[in-house]
Amino acid sequence: MRDHIDIGSSPCDAAARAHGEECVQVSRTEDYLDRMRVECRRFLALIRVKLGPEPEGAHLAIKSNPHDFGTYLEVVCHFDDENEEAREYAYKCESDGPKTWDDDGRREQTIKAMSKSPNPTEVLDAATKRREAALAAAITHDGFVLFLEQAKAQQAAQEEVIHART
Description:
Helices cover about 55% and strands about 15% of the residues. The chain has helices at about 15-20, 35-50, 85-95, 105-115, 120-140, 145-165, and strands at about 1-10, 60-65, 70-80. A 3-stranded antiparallel β-sheet has the order 1-3-2. The longest helix is centred in the last third of the chain and has 22 residues, at about 145-165.
């Protein structure tokens, strides 16, 4: 039988929201739907980068929902509840999905590799290229350029923090 889990429109970390990572809000007064769609596509792609592609019987999608102030969008994972692998992937999306926009599951590995390398900048550059390639493969829509610019800006901010630590 088919079921689904609502995952959300963006990473859920409240601490990240306190530092300016706000999600797009439904509004009666501003045109928000295109930005919300790009945000959901970006989040869906990040889930795939972090957790891998959906197994047979599971499918990530964007679902629209009515709201008093307009329609809101969110990422959902449809799955066959009789397929154990599909069901586990759906639950993993909910419990282990990205908590922040830079949570691709590789940050700690990169920091550890940088600390052991004689040239940490090369390690960071290689990690950045791998991340961009994975996201480019996961995203196939008009919002990709916007997303890539945002990802590069966030990566630059991360590099400043990492360089300050080393």
